[in-house]
Known about the structure:
Elements: H1 2-12, H2 18-22, H3 28-40, H4 44-53, H5 59-68, H6 70-79
Helix pairs in contact: 3-4, 4-5, 5-6
Amino acid sequence: MRFLLFLIPLFLCAIPPLNEVLNYPNSYYKDFWLIQHLKKTTNPQTAENIYNEITYKKDFHLKLLSKKNPIYKRLYECLHIN
Length: 82
């Protein structure tokens, strides 16, 4: 029984595949999983596609995209001038 309790956090940390997340209805739940995929991806084109799927966009999402794609880095710098 204690061993099963040890496995519960492992199931909670599993990220569903991107194809499955794209089929979810528009909600904060879908946006949460898209952000998790955006954090993990290294491909600029995939990052842009994921960003376009996010329904409720915030500055934080653009900042994540700017770290992945240099074109959006300039855009983020223009919007947030020190």
